[in-house]
Write the structure tokens for this entry.
Amino acid sequence: MSEEPLGPTDLPVDEPIMLAAFEGWNDAGSAASQALEHLHEVWGAEQVDELDPEEYHDFQVNRPVIALGPDGRREITWPITAVAVATGARTGRQVVIVHGIEPSMRWRRYCTELLDIAAGLGVRTVVTLGALLADVPHTRPIPVTTTSEDEDVRHRLGVEPNTYEGPTGIVGVLQHEAATRGLHAVSLWAAVPHYVAHPPSPKATLALLTRLEALLGEPIALGELPEDAAAWQTGVDELASEDGEIGDYVRQLEEAKDTADLPEATGEAIAQEFERYLRRRDKGTGG
């Protein structure tokens, strides 16, 4: 699975692209869902559709929320899946943003409805975002892996197929259904340190947005997110310094991570990176 930066021309700018993230099992530290919330805000996305929660949610699991509305009246907010659209200022690319909570039931119908909406908007590429708990140190860059089952996408981006086998969430199902329809499907996953799993996880959110910025070739205003990520890391540093057991564990993770990163400088890795560079150069010049 690739952790290499992606070039800004890897995906055609004249085709709408869908980005999807779901709160719940696929969203450690709320990193993925908060990445799309951030995009929705900074890109001024406008909601164009939503899925009826009555069809897909057990409200005893994902309960509606009651609160005072702007007019002082009490309102109920239901756990909908919202579909919004934004336009990239630099590329003019149309980006469809899907944000919801992992449904409790009827996953195949849920994915069918989402992909039907995507088809109506002209989407040819679906990018799902997820976050998982992993044995990674908070002091190192957050790993973001990029995979695809689409051979053409793997060639363009220089990424590997997903080799995971086991229980999956709605992200995995949506990826599979998109590929079945002949859409290009790409999956991004951030690894959140499992010993600081409680949301928010701004460093992981920042890592996902950085990868998306490279993938889309569209600048993303980060606002206070880098400062939030730095403050988060400082807070975890303090926790580790106050708890000797956690501190020792973090140092073990750092050693393992640093050792694993060493082979990236081998001749084979350099050759692979040069091949990716040549492919992108040729593509950029029409060769």
